[in-house]
Amino acid sequence: MAFLLAFYLVPVGLLLLQSVEGGSLAAYDKALTDGLYVGVLLDTMLIAAYVSIVCLLLGYPVAYFLAAAPAPWPTVGIIFVLLPFWTSILVRTYGWMILLGRNGIINRLLLESGLISAPFPLLNNMTGVLIGMVHVLLPYMVFPIYAVMRRVDTGLVSAAEGLGAPGWQIFRRVYFPLTLPGVLAGVTLVYILSIGFFITPALLGGGKVIMIAVLIEMQVRQFLNWSFAAALSAVLLAATLLVYLVLRRLFRSDLQWS
After folding, report:
1. Helix 10-19, helix 226-257: angle, nearest 10
2. I want to staple 119 with a disulfide (CB 3.0 to 4.6 A). Which of 24, 72, 106, 107 is the partner?
């Protein structure tokens, strides 16, 4: 509690005080009513939702493989999932810039193979930002789901098979509901981390994909508007908490229904 007080609650309190500098709520009024800033916040939440969905679609099968495969494949798979953590996020982002550029490796391979006649626009747009963010955040989806899958009683699946249930029904009505706590943890973690992403959208977006963290950095570095940057940060914090509560309530309803 002392650690949280010193390194979390006190900084957040100072941030909130700075956002109402002089006792005025003008910064909040601008952040919540100006169409430009509201649009950036909505775009940020939408991008975070896209990243969460893609990470779930990719991470769930990977987690299932890690939980179901015989030794030594789970160990090998975990090593590959952990590889991104051993490299700086800045280095990984620059690596994607090399791969996705107009004259990058991916476009060159596609052009030389004859699959495309002109380079794909994979950089400085939403596509590049999503690819880079999914690459960074995918492990945060895999491990919570994998941890829950390891605790699933396989006897329940065998019982469903013995009662004549087809594979899809077993997955939909038995296995997936049992793994929902892991899905909740993974989606929540990835979504919250995505909302505050800065380096990847700043570099792969090329100034054309503006997320709220990039906007806050611009307010501090270019305009020296600390009060408005603090208000944007407070709005981002409130939006994150609201999304977390909504996700928790939705998934809890699904668990009760299951």
Report:
1. 120
2. 107
Q: For the packed helices 176-195 and 35-68, what is the interaxial angle rounded to 10 degrees? A: 140
Q: Give CA–CA dist 184/249, Å, rounded.
A: 10
Q: How far apart are the C-alpha atoms of 231 and 215, rounded to whole Å?
A: 12
Cβ atoms of 140 and 192 within 8 Å: the answer is: no
Q: What's the pLDDT tens digit per position in 209-232? A: 889 998 998 888 888 888 889 999
Asked whether the CA dihedral 10, 11, 12, 14 is positive or negative, the reply is positive
Query: For residues 51 and 130, is the Cβ–Cβ distance under 8 A?
Result: yes
Question: pLDDT tens, 149-184?
Answer: 998 888 888 898 888 888 888 888 889 989 988 998
Structure tokens at 186: 């993974």
Q: Which parts of the chain have pLDDT scores under 50?
A: 257-258
> Domains in the chain, ordered, with CATH?
27-257 (1.10.3720.10)
Distance between CA 77 and CA 145 in Å, rounded?
Answer: 14
CB 247 within 8 A of CB 39: no
User: If you write DSSP's letter for every residue of 141-204 in order, what string do you get?
Assistant: HHHHHHHHHTTS-HHHHHHHHHTT--HHHHIIIIIHHHHHHHHHHHHHHHHHHHHT--HHHHHH
| Structure tokens belonging to residue 25 | 């709520």
